[in-house]
Amino acid sequence: MSLEIKAKIDVTKVLKEHLYQGKEAKYLDVAFFKNDNGPGKYGDDGFIVQGLSKEARERGEKGPIIGNWRYHEPRAGQGGKPKAAATGTASHPPEEEDDVPF
Hints:
Shape: globular
Oligomer: single chain
Structural class: mainly beta
Radius of gyration: 16 Å
Order of helices and strands: EEEEEHE
């Protein structure tokens, strides 16, 4: 049985000026860090930090903590297999309506 990682991101903490404009889409770089002292107050196994540009890091800026993550074991019978996507590919996921504030 495989483990999954589930994450929650507070999109209001994302610094829009550090989103990366790719050829066909805008991207958010993130880094996952594991808690050194075991699970956090709310059972999270680690936290998520927004990645910044090389120039910003050289100026001493640090990305904000924008969320947390935890290990999740799939329930028996799920087999740990990922669900098939309705449409799209890894590089072009299906378009969905959302209420992201940017």
